Amino acid sequence: MTRKTSVTAYEQMRDNGVLGRRRWEVYEWLFQNGPATPRKITDDLTKGTGKDSDCYRPRLAELEKMGAIECVGEEVCDKTGRTVIVWDVTDKIITNKYSKDPLTYRLEQLGFASLEEYYASDHWALIKAAYYSRHKMICAITGHFDNIQLHHIRYDNLGNEKDEDLIPLCREMHELLHVLVKEHKVPLDRGHLVLKETVKQLLEYLKQRRVQT
User: Fold this and answer.
1) What are the structural domain ranges in the chain?
2) H helix intervals, 86-121
3) What's the N-to-C CA distance of the chain in angstroms?
4) Which whole number is the average pLDDT over 48-64?
5) Which residue, of 63, 105, 117, 207, is most buried by count of CB atoms within 10 Å of its CB?
6) What is this structure's pTM?
7) Cβ count near 36 (within 10 Å)
8) CATH assignment of 7-89, among 3.40.50.2300, 3.30.70.1340, 1.10.10.10, 3.40.640.10
9) Per residue in 128-156, pLDDT tens?
């Protein structure tokens, strides 16, 4: 079988970063080792890394949708006895990013499947430690010291956050802020400002009520 490999396509997509980190790892492996079955691809990519195959397997469908890889045949898996797809790269040069929102795309570039996975990472732990070495661990809205969580005002610099991208909040304020963003469509970068003003007005109202009674 003659492969459709293209050194030009490989080099251009390597240089423009259009595939993102995980998709590029799959594409590069296939370019160098294909054609291959999903199991062969994921087994080789995860060997000795501690990673789960699920971080690579969905990338195959995404790469096919983009036109970067294609099904070139089928074969019987020697482990399961099932007929499986055999994948290989195409000679197509991909110039447009996969149609996902910027946050999801950025997470994939960093190698994370979700924000939850990012927040559980050692990298985020280092970001928080560095932030709190320069700032007090105190809620910016209530002044409380308990259950402080670091909130993203914006995700533009995810993975390389600047101090102005972050703000410490107590758990209750953090949860309320995300309610404002999710249910009331308050922009993420204004959520903390809206919440702070709302809390301020509420406290003033309660103070007036106490004076009147």
Assistant:
1) 7-89, 115-212
2) 102-110, 115-119
3) 88
4) 84
5) 63
6) 0.55
7) 18
8) 1.10.10.10
9) 999 999 999 999 999 999 999 999 999 98
